[in-house]
Design a protein that fits this description.
Helix content: 55-70%
Shape: elongated
Number of domains: 1
Number of helices: 8
Radius of gyration: 23 Å
Number of strands: 0
Distance between the termini: 37 Å
């Protein structure tokens, strides 16, 4: 028969605490204030681009040829080209409004730090579409910009950046019972 002594219990509690601290806690408030700079920059950039597109009448314009080029000549993934030709082109005005409103709403949410994770996920979806469309067609700096913004949005999701100097801290404030 084996007896567990006080020393064994302390070791087990320390081991449990180490394992608990090693697991990522996605609810914990982050104090990584320097990530706020990334959140504000990406948010301001998307907000500015969305407003400028709205003021220029982006949804009603021929934005597909201007942003991507002639779809018959441009070299992008065949499955994405098919999606653009069969779905986006027939509904170009609807997708134009989706682009403009998406950029404005995502930018506003990131600047305010409101629903940061959700807006970052939607932002990644939008930027992946920019990556497959204009990014692949143009290459170079346009492609690199999409990649950089996608990585920054991933960092915002993982760091919970809206809880530092953002409204997420107020909206998702939890009261723990002791």
């Amino acid at each position: 028969m084996a007896f567990i002594g006080e020393d064994d219990i302390l070791v087990l509690e320390e081991d449990r605490e180490i394992r608990r601290s090693a697991v990522m806690n996605l609810r914990q408030q982050t104090y990584l204030w320097y990530i706020v700079i990334l959140r504000l920059y990406i948010g301001y950039y998307l907000l500015q681009q969305g407003i400028l597109k709205y003021l220029r009448g982006f949804p009603q314009s021929d934005w597909i040829n201007r942003q991507i080029g002639d779809l018959n000549k441009v070299e992008i993934f065949s499955w994405y080209k098919s999606f653009l030709i069969n779905v986006v082109v027939p509904h170009r005005e609807l997708f134009g409004y989706l682009v403009v409103s998406g950029e404005i709403l995502i930018g506003l949410c990131l600047v305010l730090g409101l629903f940061t994770r959700l807006s970052s996920i939607v932002g990644i979806f939008m930027l992946l579409n920019y990556y497959f469309g204009p990014g692949m067609a143009r290459g170079g700096a346009s492609l690199a910009q999409q990649q950089t913004f996608i990585v920054v949005l991933l960092v915002l999701i993982l760091s919970n950046a809206g809880r530092t100097l953002g409204l997420d801290n107020l909206v998702f404030k939890r009261r723990w019972l002791s």
